[in-house]
Every structure is written in structure tokens, then in C-alpha cells.
Amino acid sequence: MARAQHGPSARSFRWPAAGLALAAVLGSATVAGAAGVGQPVPWQMDLQQPVTEVAREIYNFHHLLNWIMGAVVLFVLGLLIAVIVKFNERAQPTPSRTTHNTMLEVAWTIVPVLILVAIAIPSFRVLRAQLSDPKADLMVKVIGHAWYWSYEYPQDVGGFKFDANLIEGEDQVKSGQPKLLATDNEMVVPVNKIVKIQVTAADVMHSWALPSFGFKIDAIPGRLNQFWFKADREGVYHGQCSELCGQRHAYMPITVRVVSDAAFQAWTAEAKTKFAATGDGARFASAR
Ligand SMILES: [Cu+2]
């Protein structure tokens, strides 16, 4: 067989094969890394599983971007390798003196613009969903302190407030809760209800962030920030302060428990007796 004569075609076949292999590795990484409901898991490569519509949109957008980026990187790498192989001094002793190619120049201007437009459309769709202001079923005020979070529930569910401190050391081991993520008191919210969060801080800047809800909002002294989420799956979800706020920044986690309506009623009834009453002190701003 005259195999040696097929050298160039065999070589040109190898690049797509290598590209496919890399794509397979990237693809399996996105699948294999999928895990972590409400908290990260060892060796996790993917984002935490989304439990709100907005988080799901962010999740899908993230993966779309990864595929677009992967395709661009592979394409540029392919061009670079083609240039190195085909246009080196040995392969082309007399270089071509071509300098312009109108079609090519139009294409490499238009194609990146189209790619950016393709990215911008879903990006703005997610932003619009995040910044929409639906009518709230429940308002909760969240206040960042150095170094813990406190929560205030309005009068219509009982009017109470409490602090949520990190469970540490022996207590954490005994509780079986994840390290550095669990708090002694949890923020409890009903499932499939629009929960509006008003966030501020008492001392320095903090940030209330909950990956599974696709949610991160700065807590700034003297300023009230607002955000909303609708968790569609019951469970316990952990987050952390995400603004470098000082010595114990890493020790002020966030725990949100999403429960059924009935369980939420039961919890507020108990919370009313267990926690301090806000009286008339708790005021919720209307951003409408
Ligand atoms: Cu903080």
C-alpha cells in the first residue's frame, strides 16, 4: 500500500480528531462536575445546582459561554498550528507577499460582532429577570454585622428578629452540618413563594451571596439594597459573605432553609416565641 503518499491527508485528519477529543474532555467535565445542592462538594468543577429560575438561567448562560469560548479557543489554536505547520521557513522558502483580503477582513470583523450579539441577548435576558420587581409574598430584612448576619421578619408573619452565627468547633462536628457554612439560626422561607430581601449593613460592607439561588447583593451601611428569589425546591442552602469585610469575613456564612407552606407557618409560630419581637421598630422600605 502506498500509505506514505497519503501523508498530508492523514495529517490534516488528526487536527479535527484532537479537537473532538478536547471537546469530549470539556463536555465530560461539565457533566462529571455537576453536584452540590446548597453547598459545594469536594472536587466540584461545576456550579452548584440552581434552585431558582434566575439561577437556572445564569447556569445555562454560563455553560453557553463556556462552549462559545471553547469553540473560539479551538479555532484560534487550529489556525495557529496550521500557520506553524504550513507557513514555516522550510515549508515555504519563498513567502507569499499577499497583504490584504477584503472578504477575510470583513468576515473577521462581522463574525466576532455576531458572536458578541449572540452573547448579549441571553445576558440581557438574565439581567432583566434579576432586576424585575415582582410582588413579594414575603419580605425579609437582612443585616450584615461584623461578623454575623441578622434577619428581621415583618409583622404579618409575626414580627421577630434573630442573629445567625457560625456553628464552630465541637458544635459543628456534633451538628453534622458542613464546616464554615452552617449557622445556629437559619433563615426560613416558604417554597415557590417570591421572597424579597432588603439588605443593609450595620458596620462595614458585606455581601449576601447564595450560589444556588443565583443571588449576590452588597450589604452597605446606610443603604438598602433589594433583591428577590423564588426557590422551587425544599432544602437547606448555604452561602457566604462575599465582600472582604475584615478579620472574620470567612466565618459569617448564610443558611437558608426552604420549607413547605405548612412548615413555614409552624416555624413562624415558634419563632415568634423564641426570638425577640421587632415591635414597631422593623420598617420595610417600599421600593415600588
Ligand atoms: Cu462580611
TrEMBL record:
CDD domains: CcO_II_C (cd13912). Binds a copper A center. Its cofactor is heme; Cu cation. Residues 135-270 form the Cytochrome oxidase subunit II copper A binding domain. It comes from the Bacteria. GO terms for biological process: ATP synthesis coupled electron transport. InterPro entries: CcO_II, CcO_II-like_C, CcO_II_C, Copper_CuA, Cupredoxin, Cyt_c_oxidase_su2, Cyt_c_oxidase_su2_TM_dom, Cyt_c_oxidase_su2_TM_sf. Residues 39-134 form the Cytochrome oxidase subunit II transmembrane region profile domain. Belongs to the cytochrome c oxidase subunit 2 family. PANTHER family: CYTOCHROME C OXIDASE SUBUNIT 2, CYTOCHROME C OXIDASE, SUBUNIT II. This is Cytochrome c oxidase subunit 2. It comes from Methylobacterium oryzihabitans. The gene is coxB.
